Amino acid sequence: MNGKPNLASILSEFFDDFVALGRISSEETVHWLLAELAARDWPPGLTRQTYAQLTATGLRRKNLPLAAVAVELLASEHPVTLRGLFYRVVSAGWLPSTDKRHYDRLGRIMKRLREKGVVPFSWIVDNMRSSLKPSSWTGLEDYVDTVRDAYRKDFWANLPKYVHVFCEKDAIAGVLAPVTQEFDVALSPIRGYVSLTYAHEIAEMWSGIRKPIFAYYLGDFDPSGFDLERDLKEKLNRYGGRSFEWTRLGVNADDFEDFGLLPLAPKKSDRRYQTFIEEHGHQCAELDALPATELRQRVRNAITQHIPQDEWSKLQDVERIEKESFETALRGMNIKNVS
Fold it and tell me: Could you give all domains of the chain from N- to C-terminal order, each with its CATH number?
């Protein structure tokens, strides 16, 4: 390479300049984009309006097909992590490898699309950061609204089993949360090797549960992912007086073939390298590589198998009646007149 720009690069820049100057219409750009997708056997799955929005974001022509594919994948799988989306795009053949430069390129594209309003911010989840602030309200009426909306009956107190979900990463917790919140199940991201305090708190909470405990874990298929899981289980056993059933929901060995996961090589410098390859082989994969929809479905299946449907329906009826009674009590208080 002599460092000089090639003809394709020069033409691409001219195209972008003409679009910016209004010499090429948005409709013509959309037509070109659809032709590019068709040339790579990718049937268009977005509306014409969305494609027009994409072309109006100021992205360079070379990035438009990649952006269109990423948005389509997001539309069907959100919420998802950026890394999870990245793996899906690579697997679909729209990026050549998992090199960091390609991940950064996708990140820049998604930043532009989110800031331009093409992609909702909530579709891509990060590590569930939160700000610490005491709860406060504008007045008693505001407080009552919060209490009314927040009330949720603890169904699991009346069910025969207890379920707890663990995941290796904060970002994946954001992917799984819609399911665990729906069923009021504890979800604990472990963020690396758990501290003694963290493990002891969970073990102590479990010691007060007088029913079978079922724990589910989701983590990377690599030396760290398996060792973090081992460490967590050992600490829960060490500090708790309760037995529990443990199941790894993913990544599992069958997932490589079933989902066409791109295998990564374990690092030979890892002290757990030899043990890992003896037990699991030479293929690694991050949890993000599994489709977000598949991760949520696995958690949903794990939870619902422990829920007697008739009992769940009865508890929902009880919750509804309790909420209605609470609403009646609030109306009787005439809270607006409280000062």
Answer: 17-125 (no CATH), 159-307 (3.40.1360.10)
